[in-house]
Amino acid sequence: MFSIFFLNRESIHFTTFLFISMTDQNSSVLFPFSIYSLFPFFISWLNPLFRIGYKRRLEEDDMYKVLPEDGSERLGEELQSLWDHEVQKAAKDLRPPKLTKVLIKCYWKPYAVLGIFTLIEEVIKVIQPVFLGKLIQYFEKYDPDNMDALYEAFGYAAGVCLSTMILAVTHHLYFFHVQRTGMKMRVAMCHMIYKKALCLSSVAMGKTTTGQIVNLLSNDVNKFDEVTIFLHFLWVGPLQAAAVLGLLWVEIGPSCLAGMAVLVILMPTQTMFGRLFSKFRSKTAALTDNRIRTMNEVVSGIRIIKMYAWEKPFSALVNEVRRKEISKIMSSSYLRGLNMASFFAASKIIVFITFTIYVLLGNTISASRVFVTVSLYSAVRLTVTLFFPSAVEKLSETRISVRRIKTFLLLDEIVKSNHGFLQEEKQEPSVEIQDLICYWDKVNVQLLPPRLLDTLTVLFTSSLLSSILGELPHDKGVLKVKGQLTYASQQPWVFPGTIRSNILFGKELHPQKYEKVLRACALKRDMELLPDGDLTLIGDRGATLSGGQKARVNLARAVYQDADIYLLDDPLSAVDAEVGRHLFEQCICGILKNKPRILVTHQLQYLQAANQILVLKEGHMVARGTYSELQRSGVDFTSLLKREEEGPQAPGAETESRSPRSRTLSQNSVVSHTSSIRSVKDGTDQLPVGPTIVEESRSEGTIGVGLYVKYLKAGANILVLIGVVLLQFLAQAAYILQDWWLAYWAGEQEKLNVNGTVTVPNGVNVTEELSLDFYLGIYAGLTGATLIFGFARSLMMFNVLVKAAQSLHNRMFNSILRTPVRFFDINPIGRVLNRFSKDIGQLDAALPWTFVDFIQIFLQIIGVIAVAASVIPWILIPLVPLVIVFLFLRRYFLQTSRDVKRLESTTRSPVFSHLSSSLQGLWTIRAFRAEERFQNTFDTYQDLHSESWFLFLVTSRWFAVRLDGMCAVFVTITAFGCLLLRDQVEAGSVGLALSYAVTLMGMFQWGVRQSAEVENMMTSVERVVEYTELESEAPWETQKRPPPEWPSQGLITFDRVSFSYSSDGPVVLKDMKAMFRPKEKVGIVGRTGAGKSSLVSALFRLAEPEGRIYIDGVLTSEIGLHDLRQKMSIIPQDPVLFTGTMRKNLDPFSQHTDEDLWNALQEVQLKSVVEELPNKMETVLAESGSNFSVGQRQLVCLARAVLRKNRILIIDEATANVDPRTDELIQKTIRDKFRECTVLTIAHRLNTIIDSDRILVLDAGQIHAYDEPHTLLQNHDGIFFKMVQQTGRQEAVALLQSAKQAYNSRSRPSTTNGGVGADGNLVIFETAL
Fold first, then answer.
1. Contact predicate 1013/854, CB 8 Å
2. How far apart are CA 1274 and CA 697, in angstroms?
3. DSSP state of 484
4. pLDDT tens column, 946-985
5. How much of the chain exceeds pLDDT 70, in percent?
6. Cα gap 1275→807, rounded to integer Å
7. Of residues 144, 231, 145, the one with CA closest to residue 185
8. Contact assessment for residue 554 and residue 488, using Cβ atoms and an 8 Å cutoff
9. With contact defined as beta carbons under 8 Å apart, do 1279 and 1086 qualify?
10. Phi and psi for 435 in degrees, rounded to 5?
11. A single GO CC term, please (predicted)?
12. E strand or H helix at 1212, and its extent?
């Protein structure tokens, strides 16, 4: 009765929902869920979905909309409010808050009700063997004339069949609902974790890493899905065991205690396995975190790793971590193997011990006793040896996960300050600061200005902005902010979506205002050039935009908001002079002219426009006032200003920003030119478009046999594999023979009982007995064989499969390291990391277990059918149609299920990429108060994932119900078949056939589900194998090694070089001929997209150039990449540091002495900084070096170049984000340390290259001019002259002056040595060749 009531309540509930959905216009597919009450029999509302899935690939629109009560927001807020309450209460009671308590409070009611299903199911499992025994007894006492007994027997057969059918139904109802509860818990937890991540304080961010938060979302919360399934067995198990004990006592008396004793001993050993397992699990988890973090850095910094030729140390690093991880995984796999084998052998041992004792006590065995005992044991065995320990294991794992999540949820949050105005106050917006002291891990910032109310305030440090934003907690002093803030971050941040959505950032679109903002931020032209205008999709981390574009989008976002105070953190450093001026005039002093703005900048030419300037030095305010006041006051700063008049610090061409992998290809740095100089022919005729993100490959169709072979051969050679196969069959044979022997023994005993006494001639009656030693001996032998083979095959299989995972990971990693950079430009980081985390995770843990499980079950099913057929050969006749139906069902189901599973993994990725992009833009999101919107987006992604997950749950139940139905048919045929053929069969055979047929119930559908699981998991193998076969770049070393001291001079010759990033991509360098003489300092300038960075890429062979490049006469395309790349130093645009010690960052190969390292640091003036670190050189840097400022990271890169002592140095716009002082330091170091080297500088600030020996001006991939700066400046139509003019009048004068000075001071070499004379050029050209 109860279950029916439960169903009706559900159906009423769902009908109401259906009604709601009808009114919802844009829903994907409505849940036809009112038919839900029929769930147990058909789940027939899924049929349409299966039909679609059978015909074509399922897409996201085919999924049913998520039910309102499964919605992420609803679940999350419900749990969140309980958690907040618990935190407050715990604070009152001075105890740590308990997350477990909150979870129980939230979910115990609906979950407790489900226990009743478990109870019904387990009760039936116990009653079924009793029916079975009565049925077998009929065959033992078979009397052809007794009709009453026959009718009774038919009754018992019907009982066996009915109980199978009821089991089929309750089991799946229970499973469906507990898994749904698990899903709800998981979704609610994810909501809370994300919500927490949005309000972490900067201190808390130091305690956790992006990798760890992603791990919480991907691995830890999944434990909720698993734990809910088994939890009820904690109380059902013991109850069931007690009931079985009672029945067994009735059946075979006290010897059942021996069997139960074995069961009881098995339980703690299994629980111990569970404990050990979770211990390994937590160790493995830490190592996996570590490996994924390293992988994350390798993939993010792959450009740098390739240019430095650092693949080998990184490969060693990953392999080391992976080796540790695999050894832990191997141990836990062996544990799993032992666990599975002991589970497999448990029933055999139990039955063996029970009957050995039973016989030795002088009882005779009979078929009904044997099989009732066997069936009862197998009923309780599952619960006691599998579900109960699983419940304990999952519970302990979940507790670890809950603890990890709780630690995260209790991290410090940022203090929300309220900057709004009250309705009635119409005040001036202002920022007031007095005696402010803040700490970034103890860096002291002391400021004493009163109100920063003036319209434009210029600063020289970002820390102040951080504290105004509330990101940097202040210890003392006053910081009052009145008004809405908006913020443009220094490292431009864009999130995946359209450009428009990035600028609007949740605000309404007002076309006029929007146009105005686009114009002010110099984005108008870019929008025209991009394929879809402002609706162009930005890839992961903004991969489709150039750095300058990202910076401008970032600024436009801030400008578009209607705020009271604008905080602009160095928005001008990432753009070239002309665009910078445009932004400053049109945007900062144009659109925003009536608003308070606080601008951080290193570019001094804009200071005159400022109403107030604060000069901060090492956290103290040194000077404050207007431009003219500061000039008069003669502070240290003024020397900077004075110099501006004489030789100004000019910002130069547009630099691409520094977020990792942003500056993908210069082809997408679309020309960012504004209306001001349309006259100049900028390379707009042929505008290549940036790399677009390729759709992730989702393989379709079935998995071929070839893949299984590849997978297994990765783990062992053919001989080993053949051995494993033989073992499998031996084990299964021993398994069946052991049961068969018991039945045979019982049958022989039966014959004796029928014609028992024999009269011997001298008239004494002797009872004949079976030779105990013979029967018991063989029985013991078979039991032993079952054990030995069972354990051996399990361990062998696990060994092979884990080795396969190991070798596939190594192959994939090596292939990733060797693939050209282009691959990383078109594949977002998340996708590559997904292969290393999710897919390798599957290969490590889930796949081996499922694979072994499937093989064992498959063999067992074959065994069951073989046994049944040997008893009743006729059974093969109805079996044929059943098998055909089954094969069709499996194919039909897999078509859809595979798609559902794939949808589940593709809908999961947005959840993670949303999380990681939110973490990168945390400050921006908070400054814009957009947390709620991002939370909602996250919930939407979660709901999408829930839709596919829900489908996954229901489809698997749909299938299972149908399979179990087929098994019930099989049991029915067997049971009634035995009765119909009652004259030809023996009791023992009937017992064997029926008890086996009944075990088929759960096993068959589990086996098929496992086979589907194996296929689904093989998609992970397929994805990994796909990445092991990527195209690889040229070899790292070739037969042709350059001489060891090469290049001794540093002469670089480009001979007709054309270059494009991919075979089908646009050509970015066209037929270039140039020569860089030894020791020459060359500046390379050109507008965005002119091909400056492509020149470097061609030199480093990041993609193979056409044409020939010689270095000191050696053709670079003939030598190995490492030989080439190690001989050139580069100071890259994005300074990349890796997690690890400072020493590893400078010298990963450990080629240099300590003294060298300290000297290098001294040279770049970082020695003092490193000495202050706790462990000096051995200090481990935070994730990607975030505890250093951008400038300091740049200096570390410079130190690397100093250490390498190469003849050729390339500087790629390295000083784009550095203040003038650091810039000057870098320039000075370069002039001193690299006097003997050939230096190519891609210029950003013209003043850094104005005194170069020559300047190469590129335009649209071709050389526009190449000569001494002074000579170039004589040509007033040249691009270079125009670039100088754009820096502003004062600057331009100063630049012309320095060029002239440099020109005059240079000693002119004789023409033969390759002066300016064209012939001289050729002379060297020929000698070089």
1. yes
2. 55
3. -
4. 988 888 888 888 888 888 888 888 888 888 888 888 888 7
5. 84
6. 62
7. 231
8. yes
9. yes
10. 45, 45
11. basolateral plasma membrane
12. strand 1208-1212
Tokens of 220: 């830890």
Phi, psi of 151 (to 5 degrees): -65, -40
Report the b/e string of 247-271 with b at 16+ CB within 10 A: bbeebbeebbebbbebbeebbeebb
Dist. CA 544–CA 498, nearest whole Å: 11
Q: How far is CA 1313 from CA 136, 1075, 1302, 1309, in A?
A: 108, 13, 20, 7
Q: Write out pLDDT tens, residues 719-775.
A: 999 999 999 989 999 988 888 888 888 888 878 877 655 545 565 555 567 788 899
Q: 135 near 153, Cβ under 8 Å?
A: yes
Alpha-helical regions (H) of 253-366: 256-300, 302-308, 311-360
Strand order in the sheet with 1052-1060: 1067-1076, 1052-1060, 1106-1111, 1114-1115
Copy the structure tokens of residue 758.
């024999």
DSSP single-letter state for residue 220: I
Give the residue from 1121, 1064, 1068 showing the smallest Cα distance to 1094.
1068
Q: Count each helix (H run) and each strand (E run) in the chain, helices first.
A: 45, 25
Helices (H), 613-760: 627-633, 636-646, 705-715, 718-754
What CA–CA distance (Å, rounded) separates 1221 from 1192?
12
Query: Which of 1109, 1106, 1055, 1095 shows the shortest CA–CA distance to 1322?
Result: 1055
Structure token pair of residue 64: 């049913």
pLDDT for the residue 1185: 64
User: Comparing C-alpha atoms, which of 1253, 1241, 1184 is closest to residue 1215?
Assistant: 1241
**For residue 765, how many other CB atoms are within 10 A of its CB?**
9
Residues 1275, 1291: Cα–Cα separation, whole Å: 18
Query: Cα 392 to the chain's mean position, in Å?
Result: 28
CA 423 – CA 660 distance, rounded (Å): 43
Torsion of the alpha carbons at 1196, 1199, 1200 and 1206, rounded to the nearest 10: 150
Q: Is a pLDDT exceeding 90 seen at residue 240?
A: no
> Which range has highest mean pLDDT (483-497, 584-598, 854-868)?
854-868
State residue 982 phi and psi, 5-degree precision.
-60, -15
User: How far does CA 1227 lie from the centroid of its chain?
Assistant: 41
Q: Of 290, 134, 310, 126, which Cα lies nearest the Cα of 211?
A: 290
Helix (H) or strand (E) holding 1114: strand 1114-1115
Amino acid at the residue 618: E
d(CA 331, CA 1023): 26
Q: How many CB atoms lie within 10 A of CB 297?
A: 23
The encoded tokens of residue 550 equal: 């990202």
Half-sphere exposure of 667 (CA within 13 A, CB side): 20
Q: Which residues pair with 437 in a beta bridge?
A: 446, 476
Q: Which of 131, 359, 282 is nearest to 991 (CA)?
A: 131
- 640-695: per-residue pLDDT in tens? 544 443 333 333 333 333 333 333 333 233 333 322 333 333 333 333 344 555 66
- What are the φ and ψ backbone dihedral angles of 643, each rounded to 5 degrees? -60, -25
Task: Report pTM.
Answer: 0.68
Q: How many CB atoms lie within 10 A of CB 691?
A: 21
Mean pLDDT of 817-823: 86
Cα–Cα dist 797/330, whole Å: 12
1019, 699 contact by CB (below 8 A) = yes
Confidence of residue 159 (pLDDT cuts 50, 70, 90): very high
Give kind and range of the element (H or E) at residue 614: strand 612-617
8 Å CB contact between 738 and 782: yes
The answer to whether 498 touches 536, Cβ cutoff 8 Å, is yes
- Token readout for 126 is 């116990």
Which residue's structure tokens are 């970015």? 1068
Query: Hey, what amino acid is at 1153?
Result: T
Classified as helix, coil or strand, 744 is helix
